[in-house]
Amino acid sequence: MQVDYSGALLELRRFGTYDAWRPGCIAPCNRRLLVDGMEARVVAPGMTPSKPFRIESGSGSALLAIDGGSASAHRWGRTALFSGIPLSFAGMGLLGYGAFDDRTALATSGTIVLGLGAALVLAALPLLTSGSTEVTNADGDLIGKRRGPRQLY
Q1: pLDDT tens across 79-109, in order?
Q2: Top-confidence residue, 24 or 148
């Protein structure tokens, strides 16, 4: 397991369940693990956890490369996105109402709020991208990609 974050941990749980994740091994992992009927993910301090993925059971080694995404960048990206969307809608409403009712100040305020919301949404996109964790196998196939955690940790 090759990972760009120190302290990376491969975690396992039964496939198709919401059981708690249990530690498998710390990178670099040279242990034999029971992977039949299990799903895995990679976590590390400061890294967005990977999406759960499966490792085919059998003899030999599973070579994984993890391109970790920044958990901090992901948090800021989510904050910007979840702030920017409602601001954009509020700005559109103010702009529309101001234009309809011929209130120039209200339409101007709506334009400013809409612009601020749009700027936040645009700023969120690179943050969310840099907060994405990808797992690839030895063939270079993407097997696990996470844009952010599905649950709060």
Answers
A1: 999 999 999 999 999 999 999 988 999 999 9
A2: 24
- Specify whether the CB–CB gap between 130 and 147 falls below 8 A: no
- Which pTM value belongs to this model? 0.71
What the block records as the tokens of 125 is 């996109």
Q: DSSP string spanning the chain? A: -EESSTT-EEEEEETT--PPPEEEEESS--S----TTEEEEEEBTTBPPPPPB----SSS---EEEEPPBHHHHHHHHHHHHHHHHHHHHHHHHHHHHHHTT-HHHHHHHHHHHHHHHHHHHHHHHHHHHT-EEEEETT--EEEEESS-SS--
Banded pLDDT at 130 (limits 50, 70, 90): confident
* pLDDT of res. 145: 60
Angle at 135 between CA 33 and CA 56, to 5 degrees: 40
Question: What are the residue boundaries of the structural domains of the chain, listed by start?
Answer: 2-69+132-146, 71-128
Rounded distance between C-alpha atoms, residue 69 and residue 49, angstroms: 8
Question: Which residue, among 110, 85, 83, has the nearest Cα to 96 in the 3D structure?
Answer: 110
